[in-house]
Amino acid sequence: MRQTALSRYESLRSGRQQFLDAAREGARLTIPYLMTEEGFGEGEKLPIPWQSLGAKGCNVLSSKLMLSLFPLNTSFFKLSINDQELATLPEITPDIRSEIDLTLSKMERTIMQQISESSDRVILYSAMRHLVVTGNVLLFAGKKHLKLYPLNRFVVDRDGNGEILHIVTKEHVHRSLLPKEFQKLPDGEPNINSAGEDGVKHGVAGSSYEDATVFTHCELKDGSHKWYQECDGKILPSSHGSSPKNISPWICCRFNITDQESYGRSRVSEYQADLQSLDGLMQSMVEGSATMAKVVFAVSPSSVTKPQALARASTGSIISGRADDVSVIATNKQADFRTVREMIEILTQRISDAFLILSPRNAERTTATEISAVQQELNEQLSGVYGNLTVTLLTPYLLRKLHILQRNKSIPQLPKGLISPTVVAGLNSLGRQQDKVALMEFMNTVAQSLGAEALAQYIVPTEVLKRLAAASGIETLNLIKDQSTMDQEMAQMQQQQTTDTLMKQAGQLAKTPIAEQLLNGNQQQEPPALQEGGGNIPSPTGQEGTE
Hints:
The protein is an alpha+beta fold. The protein is 47% helix and 13% strand. A hairpin with a 2-residue loop joins strand 7 and strand 8. Helix 7 packs antiparallel against helix 9 and helix 12 packs antiparallel against helix 14. The radius of gyration is 40 Å and the shape is flat.
């Protein structure tokens, strides 16, 4: 008997509960609306944490992940040519190779333009925030746009290697959007809009009874992901779909991977103790400060000063009494609050470091190099997360996007084995930054140890430029001159220098006395000009000419 999507969802729901509880606790300390409590209704009041550092840290870390994995104004992937396959094609000359590289670069820009024109970046940023706070997120890469499922709307089952076996999603859809046979309420379910003893009930058209619960079950079978949708225990017509596993639209991501667990752990859960401590101390600090800010006067019972007169007196008023009879009630808790404030500063610094919030040293001479070193150290903390998301998010998203664009004929089909997409963002981008830092340190060490002349003597400038461009992710095609172009320009420069030298020497020779004598002698030997109607004029070739 076939297991329904509802029964599969209920069987996998218990394994998700502890991760869901942890996600809700993390959201309560950071961004409450990302994961609300069960039964939360639209428009209800959300809990408000006593500190905003958690929300700031989640937003900063999500933005850094977004910019690292999907950088702006540059491609996060590269269409590269397989050199081994290219070597088997002798007709591919270097000029043709250059034209192929230009064509691939245009295709990269086309793909990035398609991504920029869609709403994918908005959904991807929201996915980053869910990963940081809850540790899990599910994306469905459809033909037109991405769709996000938070942790409370899907369950997943994995094998021991982390491969997805089952995914079941749950969502509410208005019945008017379903096929006709599903637009009516199932038998046995009450309709609160039906006419009763008091007539038709108005104002309840948007009730939850008009929303149907639709389950989508995706299963790995024979190397492909196959899925269908189910409502009221019946399969929706035309809801079946399948896709090879490498280009599947179902992208299930985890922030931190744990062995033998189908769900991931979030960044917030790792530092939940610090966040809870900070939240409690901030609550005590705020409430205590409000108590200390309250001003209450005490009047001696035997004093001649009347409390009513003191209460009715305004600023600058004159009343009868003695100043010694009136005192101000003080808590005298300044020393205790100083300890709380110091602990808050320690927790703030620890949480800022955990969520990559750059806090440079507060000094008069904080250099840019020091800030860059701190930033590099903070980014290196997430090297493992970059590697995980590169494999589980970037690569599947890129392959799916290429498949959709090729199917829509927005880009031509890529030859299998000859051209392959390669992700250059994420962990690869972090490695390039380290290569750049190491190269600059090497250049500075050589210049300081052997002098600047050693750089010109032992270092190849073009190779340094290429490596710096590669470390910065800059395409060097037609940007850096090759050796043949430089040799040709050098020959032209030498020829021009030789010509300028000869012209200069000829001008100096013309000013010497010998040159002036030769010039005057040649002018005296020239025949006088002939008058009009004279004899024949000799031709330039020495032959006689005629009129």
